[in-house]
Amino acid sequence: MLAQVIFLVFGMISLALLLNLWRLMRGPSLPDRILALDTMYINSIALIILYGLLMGSPLYFEAALLIAMIGFISTVAVCKFLLRGDIIE
Fold this sequence. Notes:
The protein is mostly helical. Helix content is 87%, strand content 0%. The chain is built from 3 helices and no strands. α1 runs antiparallel to α2 and α2 runs antiparallel to α3 (59-84). The longest helix has 26 residues, at 30-55.
């Protein structure tokens, strides 16, 4: 039963990724595109964790943690660049 639910959730998150890609390409403003990119990396983290559950390997959870850290830092850097025009002061 768990494997069937995991495949169903794979499909739902993949649909969410496609909708985020649509918002990334068609976003009316730059903050909308940044938010879409931020949501895409969160959805990709969810896919990696689901794959780790399916395979039963803790390695995928560590990879998801690294992607989350890199995604957070990159989002902060892009927002800081938009507000101030410079990342490093």
